[in-house]
C-alpha cells in the first residue's frame, strides 16, 4: 500500500542514532531511551508508519524548570523519545534547505559554526569599532508568532509533510508536573530538536536580513537570541537601539531591558561608564596585552573567561566531590574528569588563557584534599601533600588536562 508521504526508513534510523548520541531525559510518557530500545525495531517501524501515513500527532511536551544564572527559572519543553526522533527526521530534511540562505554572521545552532568563531570575529571588530550595541531577546522561544514562522517555513520548503508536522509541533500543548495541560498559540518549545532551527529561521528574517537591508555598514554577530552590532559612534548605537526595539515589536518579540545596552569599546574614552560586556562565556573589556611583533605592552579591548563562567566551573568541581573519593586512584580521577577539564581549557583558554588560573588552582586544591584524605601520612600535612602532587606533576605533566595547559601544579 502506497503511503501519502515518501519518508525513507533509513532516514528514521539515522534520526534515531542522532537522538541517541544526544541522550536526553524521558518525556510525558516516562519512556527512556533504554526503554525505547527494548523494542527498537517495532518502535521505529511504528514511528515511520505513522509519519509516512500522515497520522503522527505529537504528544504534549514535558515542562521541566531549570535554574538560570540570574536565579530565575526557565521552562524547557522536553518531547518524548519518539517525538525527538520524529523532529530529527524533519530537521534532517529541512536544515539542508535552510542553511544556504542563512548569513555568515549567524553562529548559533548551525552545522560547521562555533561559539569560538563568534568570539574571534567579535574580538577583531571591537578593535575596529569604538561602540557596540549588545542585545538579548526576551523569551525568544516562548514568543515567536506561529503565523509568521510558518510563512517563513513555507517559503523555503515544498515538502508537504515537513510543513504539516512543524504546524503540529507548534500547537502541541505543554504538560506540567501536576498533570496540568496548557495549550500553546505562540512559541516553539525550548528543548525540542526542531526548535533551534525554527528560531534561527525566524530571526534570519526578523534581524539578519533586516540588518543586511537597513544597516549594511554595521557588522553584527548573532548567536541564537544574543546579538552584537558594532557602530562607529555612540549616536549610531543609540539610534539603532530604538530602531531595533520597534523592529522586534513589529515581529512579536521584545528586547530584554536588563541585557540590552550600549558599550564603549574605545579604550581611550574615559567618560562613558559601560566599558565591558559578556558574550558566550567571555568578558570583553580593556586589558593589558602584548604586541606580538615587538613584544611591547598596550591596552586593548579583548576577551577572557567571564567571572560567571569561572564560578560555574568551580561549582561543577565542588559538585563532583572528588576530595571524598578516596577509593579512586589519581589516574582514575584524571580519566574521569579530563574530558571536562579539556573542554573548559579548549574553549575558555582560546583567548587570554591566564583567566583560567583560578579554575586550575581550585581543582589542584581539591586534589590536595584528596591526597590528605587518602593517605594517612599526609593527614593534616598540607605542605607535604602539595609537594607530593608537585612531584607527580613534574614526572607526569600530561596526567591532568589542566596541568598541560597551566604548565604544572599550582595552588597559590
Rg measurement, Å: 25 Å
Structural class: alpha+beta
What is the terminal-to-terminal distance? Answer: 73 Å
Portion of residues in beta strands equals 5-15%
Which overall shape is indicated by the principal axes computed on the Cα atoms? globular
The amount of helix comes to: 40-55%
- Counted beta strands: 11
Largest sheet: 4 strands, mixed
Order of helices and strands: HHHEEHHEHHHEEHEEHEEEEHHHHH
Highlighted features:
single chain, 4-stranded antiparallel β-sheet, 412 residues, 4-stranded mixed β-sheet, alpha+beta
Topology:
Elements: H1 9-22, H2 33-38, H3 40-53, E1 61-67, E2 73-78, H4 81-98, H5 115-126, E3 131-136, H6 140-143, H7 146-156, H8 160-171, E4 174-175, E5 181-182, H9 195-214, E6 220-223, E7 226-231, H10 234-250, E8 261-264, E9 277-279, E10 282-290, E11 297-305, H11 307-320, H12 330-348, H13 357-374, H14 382-395, H15 401-406
Parallel strand pairs: 1-4
Antiparallel strand pairs: 1-2, 3-7, 3-8, 4-5, 6-7, 9-10, 10-11
What does this entry show, briefly?
By secondary structure, the protein is an alpha+beta fold. It is built from 15 helices and 11 strands.
Kindly describe this structure.
The model has no long low-confidence stretch (mean pLDDT 93). The strands form three sheets. The protein has a four-stranded mixed sheet, with no helix packed on it. A hairpin with a 5-residue loop joins β4 and β5 (181-182). It contains 15 helices and eleven strands. The protein is an alpha+beta fold and 412 residues long. α1 (9-22) packs across α4 (81-98) and α7 runs antiparallel to α8. Helices cover 48% and strands 14% of the residues. The longest helix has 20 residues, at 195-214. The relative contact order is 0.09.
